[in-house]
Amino acid sequence: MELNVNQQSLIKNIPLILSCYHVKLEAMQKDCIYLDNNATTKVDPEVIEAMLPYLRDYYGNPSSMHTFGGQVGKAVRQAREQVAALLGADESEIIFNSCGTEGDNAAIRAALLAQPEKRHIITTQVEHPAVLNVCKQLETQGYSVTYLSVNRQGQLDLNELEASLTGNTALVTIMYANNETGTVFPIEQIGLRAKERGALFHVDAVQAVGKIPLNMKTSTIDMLTMSGHKIHAPKGIGALYVRRGVRFRPLLIGGGQERGRRAGTENVPGIVALGKAAELELFHIEEATTREKRLRDRLEQTLIATIPECEVNGDPTQRLPNTTNIGFKYIEGEAILLHLNKHNICASSGSACSSGSLEPSHVLRAMGLPYTILHGSIRFSLCRYTTEAEIDAVLSVMPSVVERLRALSPFKSDQANWLQQQEQALLTKS
Description:
Elements: H1 5-31, E1 33-34, H2 45-51, H3 53-56, H4 67-87, E2 94-97, H5 100-114, E3 120-124, H6 129-139, E4 144-148, H7 158-164, E5 169-173, H8 187-196, E6 200-204, E7 223-227, E8 238-242, H9 257-260, H10 268-306, E9 310-313, E10 323-328, H11 333-342, E11 345-346, H12 362-366, H13 371-374, E12 377-381, H14 388-408, H15 417-429
Parallel strand pairs: 1-11, 3-4, 3-5, 5-6, 6-7
Antiparallel strand pairs: 2-8, 7-8, 9-10, 10-12
């Protein structure tokens, strides 16, 4: 087929177009103020350096018998030790996998397969979709699931947990810290109650690892999920902790990798990267969390002081040091994000895994927040790369953004009939 003049010109200029696009992306990245670290994190330069040789030079299969593969297997063993050190676990208790979602699925299904006579699961209304949607599917297969409620601060009622536990309860699966509000649950108290009734205890700790010191040797946790891209490793790599002695049936069946607990050729560059990221998190955890909390509090307190009619969502004390979720009354969170994006500021209105839905956050709904706050809530999540200057930039922009959007909003009062109708509709629906 013969190309016309325009097509020939376009093809000829593709390298130039791509080059300009790349320059534009680099400029955007350089100027970006990234406060969406609960969604994903920047890969640490030291992590990139650690993994590059296993993409470029050491490409052998770690299961191979020859020396070339054996040196790769040694790197996998070192990474397992690094991850175990971060979790306060034994290296034999670490299973490498692809992500937090796979870890949650594997843990939940393994717990049920280990106790086929038990048909009851306990979780919460504010879990990540990787847990909630598995539980909903299991309900269609004859399992009963109790979804524990939370209060206005996003906290559980341990009395409700105790009342829900029975001899038929196979598993309690509850997140360590909520990804949207940062609220931290009393995990060890929950675990003790689960143990008293003979239930296994799984914890989705994707948001907690690297932000809260962990010690599996003294914990009540039987299985724990973590994900690399939340701790400055690449996407597509994670790990599942399974306490020694807990019966575990693999989700993926095939070869004997990961001691027969997760089939499939190991993602060696990802595993090496996760190991290095775990080492760095353990090294930085005290200094980084102290610094992140200070910057988070400054951001939060200044916004509350300078912008009328807004409030913090979640537990004010029992929460992650890097996370604040603030509700701005009478405006839409998505509109705030669009205006922030014009200033190259990245934040979130909820879980990245639920984006695209026009429904309000299931977490904030479960907390019983009024409609005036529900739709106008924004999450800012920091990391060890966040700077004072970036916080200053957000503080300089947010008041005018909120003022501009409120000037366009028809809803200026909690007494508006429409708002009352919407709140009642939400309550009825839930």
